[in-house]
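Deliverable D5.2: sample structural annotation.
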Amino acid sequence: MVLRPIQFFLASLLAFGPSMTAASTWHVTPGGLNIEAAMDSCVAGDTVLVAPGEYAVGPVRVADGIVFRSEEGPRVTRFTQYPGAPGGFGCTSLNRVTAIEGLWFDGFTGHANEGAGAVNILSCLNVRISECVFTGNDVAGVVVNTEFDVTIEHCTFVNNVMAIDLTSARGTLEHCIVWDPMAGISADPFILVLCNDLLRITDAPPVFRGANFSSDPSFCSATDYRVMPSSPCAPGQSPLGTNCGLIGALPADCSTTPAKSTTWGGLKALYRKHDCRAHYPRYSRACPRTMFVVSILTRRLAFTFGTSSSRAPRLLPLPVRC
């Protein structure tokens, strides 16, 4: 049978499945879509985007072939364990490249059926964990038991019983602050351990010890795991030279940014300044992200003057933001 063009297209769509469909973004928010529902709904190629907040979760199975990341970084996006729930996040038998980015995992308790760590990588093809913070996990921040490549980069491990348990793994550990013990790293040449600040330099295979160092990371405080500009983990400050750049998940900056006071008139002016549809109607789909500053203003109070009740103050809706 000869397939007509439309039949050929439909047959191809069925054959290749999700790879030919448009990727979706699933927005996890406090009080909105939860992480479990997002993971159950997404497919390979999708992104699970987590809004700022603290989320108490039970065991969560990470979906295959997705990007799981925060909107605004780990300092404002934290996962903790729901009281009494077993285990943390499981990456189990994933066959596609999966990324976990910019999240904070705190206070997870191990469980035999779900893996002992906050994040558990078990028999996965390729998992990349980057710019994440792991604190207070009573067994390990990350447990890796897979024969395939795993990359852990630009992460910070502090106050865990164990930072990383590499039971069986190959891949790369680089640009991380590992201020907890590690276990399971052998001299296997497939494990590259580079540009890390290690609590115990002996945790690195002998062949890689010269490519890492062990110095106080100079955190900004006991609970603020950014590093001081003079820290050996700051760009240009590493005893290994300038090639390492920033080490760890958080910036080399201990400053605070106070809230700037303004007036109602100032807020209206800011809104007009960033109302891209008013000024640039042809480019309304490319609105600046700064419009979120005034998105909290859902109504505008418009006063009209006069004695008639029909001319009393009334509420008018703000235009829908871009």
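Annotation notes: The chain is about 10% helix and 30% strand. The CA atoms of residues 5 and 70 lie 42 Å apart.
The annotation will be released with the project's public dataset once the embargo ends.
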